């Protein structure tokens, strides 16, 4: 017989995401007993948790039981990413959906406001200005520099003198690695997968995982202390160029450099 996947309530899935992101906050509030020692929580982090919890419990519109504000946002953003929808296209359809709903609905009006809600889930990125000719990054001790130290190229584009906001020539988007690795171990859905290579892998000369490869085994022989702990992660480096939204008649391409757990 074919296995039947259980029907999962989207609202429950969103609450699971929040508990994965803020395990200490949810534990302190929901499961604290007299003999428990509360885990200290950063005030700013707890404020983010309360905002997400409010959006997760707030109905999309009065009487709506199927979607909370946060559930609707997560579903819409999932569709945007899955079908490679541009921000302008997303704003257009989001505005239509908002007009379709009851007038007192709580759906955000555009992508910018959606991002503000989802920022509380973490895993954001840092914008770091770069030299137009890729000579250097305006980062750390060079964060306040206005010209490249190597080629003397201006950091910002030439704009009207009346424009208050300076536009950088080039921007690098950096996704910090440490919080992403932490998230993999914070989530109950992924923590067992992170140790699979050590605890559940079958060594039968069949290639199913990088751990079956000779490079992985040689690394373990070279660094036995590191390999002894299944929670230690090996990182792979990959680079790939792509054309945003699949518009092949444009010459623009974006090059991504990934550090990935393997």
From TrEMBL:
InterPro entries: Transposase_21
Pfam families cross-referenced by the UniProt entry: Transposase_21 (PF02992)
The name this protein goes by in its record: Transposase-associated domain-containing protein
């Amino acid at each position: 017989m074919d296995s039947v996947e259980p029907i999962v309530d989207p609202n429950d899935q969103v609450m699971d995401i929040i508990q994965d992101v803020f395990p200490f906050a949810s534990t302190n509030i929901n499961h604290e007993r007299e003999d428990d020692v509360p885990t200290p929580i950063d005030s700013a982090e707890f404020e983010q948790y309360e905002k997400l919890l409010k959006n997760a419990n707030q109905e999309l519109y009065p009487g709506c039981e199927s979607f909370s504000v946060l559930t609707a946002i997560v579903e819409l953003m999932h569709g945007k990413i899955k079908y490679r929808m541009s921000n302008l296209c997303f704003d257009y359809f989001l505005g239509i959906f908002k007009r379709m709903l009851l007038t007192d609905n709580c759906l955000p009006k555009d992508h910018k406001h959606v991002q503000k809600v989802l920022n509380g889930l973490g895993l954001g990125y840092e914008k770091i200005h770069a030299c137009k000719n890729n000579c250097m990054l305006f980062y750390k001790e060079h964060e306040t520099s206005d010209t490249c130290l190597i080629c003397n190229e201006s950091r910002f584009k030439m704009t009207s003198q009346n424009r208050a906001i300076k536009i950088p020539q080039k921007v690098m988007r950096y996704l910090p690695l440490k919080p992403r690795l932490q998230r993999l171990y914070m989530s109950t859905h992924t923590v067992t997968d992170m140790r699979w290579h050590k605890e559940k892998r079958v060594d039968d000369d069949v290639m199913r995982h990088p751990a079956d490869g000779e490079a992985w085994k040689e690394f373990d022989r070279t660094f036995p202390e590191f390999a002894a702990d299944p929670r230690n992660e090996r990182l792979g480096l990959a680079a790939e160029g792509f054309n945003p939204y699949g518009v092949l008649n444009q010459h623009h391409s974006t090059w991504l450099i990934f550090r990935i757990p393997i």
